[in-house]
Design goal:
This protein has 611 residues and is mainly α. Helices cover 68% and strands 4% of the residues. The chain is built from 26 helices and five strands. The protein has a five-stranded parallel beta sheet, with helices on both faces. Helix 21 packs parallel to helix 26. The protein is globular, with a radius of gyration of 28 Å.
Length: 611
Amino acid sequence: MASQKRKYITGIDGLRSIAVVGVILYHLIPRYMPGGYLGVTLFFVISGYLMTDILLNQWENRKKIGLKNFYYKRARRIYPSLIMMLIITGSTFVFVSKDLLLNFKQIVVSSLLNVNNFWQILSGSSYFDRFGNESAFTHLWSLSIEGQFYILWPIVVALLVFKRDDFKLLGQVILTLTILSGVLMFAFYHPDNVNRIYYGTDTRLFSILMGAYLAIFLREKEEVLMKIDEKIQIASWGVTLLLIILSFVYLKDSSVFVYRGGMFLFSLICMILLGLVVSYDKPNAFLTNPLFKWIGTRSYEIYLWQFPVMISYEKMIKFNGDHSWVHFVIQLTLILLLSEITYRVVQFLVFDIKFSKENMLKVIETLQGKIAAVGTVILLLLFSYSLIIAPSGRTEASVALQKKLEQNKKIIENKNEKTVSSSSTESKEKETTETINQEANDTLTNEESTYLKKIKLTAIGDSLLLSAAPEVQDVFPDNYIDAEVGRQLVDSEDVFKKTVSDKKIGDVVLVVLGTNGSFDSKDIDNIMNKLGDKPVFFVNTMVQRSWQKVVNDELDKTAKRYKNAHVIDWKSYSEGKQTWFEADDLHLTPEGATAFSNLVGKNIYEVMNKK
C-alpha cells in the first residue's frame, strides 16, 4: 500500500487540478468550457476512492476501522478552510452589498451540518441560474454530499466487512447502489428543472461509489493490470484523459444526454483514468508537473473561493463583457491569491501550531501575532453582524417579479381571456400600468400602429420577453409568444423546430434570447435554417454579465451574414434608463416594457416598409 500512497501523492494532485480548472473555467468563460461543471464529478470519483482506500487499509492492517480518527482527519481538512471563507466573505459582504448576504444564516448552518444540498433543493436554488437565485455560496452543495459520505461511509464499510475475509459483499453493495443511483438520475430527470437530480445525494452518489469500487477492484486486479503492455497503458491513459477534456469542452449542462447516461458514463471514464493513475508510474509525468502539484494541493481552497469572488466581483464592477480577458485574469488572480492565503493560514494553525493553547499564546506574543489577533477579532465581529442583518427567504422585489412573470405567462397562454383581479390594490396597479402604456404608446405614430396591428408576430424568448409580453401583445394583437425563464438560444433549436412544425410562424419572427448566456454562429445557423426566408429580428442584450458583448457581437455578425436577419439595438436604446428596469437591472417595469415593445414595433415597421 505504500506504493499506492506514493502514486496518489504524485498523480491525484494532477487530477484534482484538472477538475478544479474545469469548474473555474466553466464559470469564468462558459463559452469555451461549457462542460467544466463535470469537474465536480471527477472530484466525487477521487473522494470515493481515497476514503474507501483509507478505510480498507485500516481494516487490512488492524481488523478494525477507527471512526474517531477518520472523522477527526476529515473535519481537520474540511472545516478550517470553509469557516475561514465564510467569515471573510460575511465580513466583506457587509460593505459590498446586503443582497450578497441573502439567506447567509441558512447557508452557514446548512454548510456546517453538511445538508446544504438539501436546503438548496427545498429553497428552489439552481446551480445554473445567474439571476433569480444567484448566490455566492451555491457551489457549497457538493461539499455537503461529500460530507454526508464521510459521515456514513465508514459505518457502512465497517458493517459490511465485519468478520469477513474479503470485500465481496461490500463490492456487491457498491455496485447495486451505483446502478440504483444512476437509474434515479435517469428517472427523475425533467428538462424544466434539473435542480433535484443535480443537487440530490441519491442521484449523484454513483460517482462517489465508482471511486469506492475502484479501491476494491485494484486490490484484486492490480497485479494483473501491471502486466499489461506499457504502450497500452499509456494509450489508455491518454484516451481517457482526452475524453474528460472533450467532455469539459462539449457536454453542455442543458444536454439531456448528461442526465440520462452521460454523467454516469463520464464517471466511469474518470474511474478508469484514476485507476490508471494509481496503478502505473510512466503515464503520470504530465500530472506531476509543479503547476499541477500547486493547484492540486490547493484545489479545495480554490473551489471554495471561486463563487464568492466571481459573484461579488460582478456585483461591484458590473462589467458587460468589454475587455473580458482582463476581467478574467483579475478574477482568477483574486481566486488564487485568496486560496493561497487560506491554505497557508490553515496549514499554520492546524498543522504547524496545531491550535494548542500554548502555541497560540506564543504566536500572539509576537507583533505579527498581535496584529493577526486584532484582525481576527474584527472579522469575527463583522461576521456576527453579517449574520444578524442577513435577509432570509426571498426579497420582496424578487417575489413580486416572480408573480409578475407567472401572470404574464398565463396571459400569453390564454391571450383571449381577460384576467380580472379581485384585489383593489392590484386593480389600482393595473390602472397605473395602462396609463403608462397609453402615454408611452404615443411614441408610435398612428400609421405605424395601424400597420403593426396587421402583422402576425411570432416571438420566442426568455424572461426578458416574458416581462414585456402584455405590452408586446398591445402592439401586435395578432401574435404567438413563447417565453420561458432561463431559456438560452443554445438550447432553443427544438423550440423553433416545434413552432415551425405546428405552423405558428407568422409574418415576422422576434427572437429575444441573449439574457442567460452566449452562443455561436452554428447555434444561429440552426435557427435560421428552420425559419427559411422569414424576416427575423434579434433583440440584442442589455445585461451586466460577461457574455453581453459576445452575444451582441454575434448578433451583429448574423445581420451581415443573413439578408433576412435584423438586430434591434435594445442595449443602446435602454442604457441609462434606470426606471425601465426592475431591481435586478434586467427585467422590465411597465414603463420599460412599453418602451421595449415600441422599439420592436418601430424597427419592424421600418424594415418591412423599406422600398
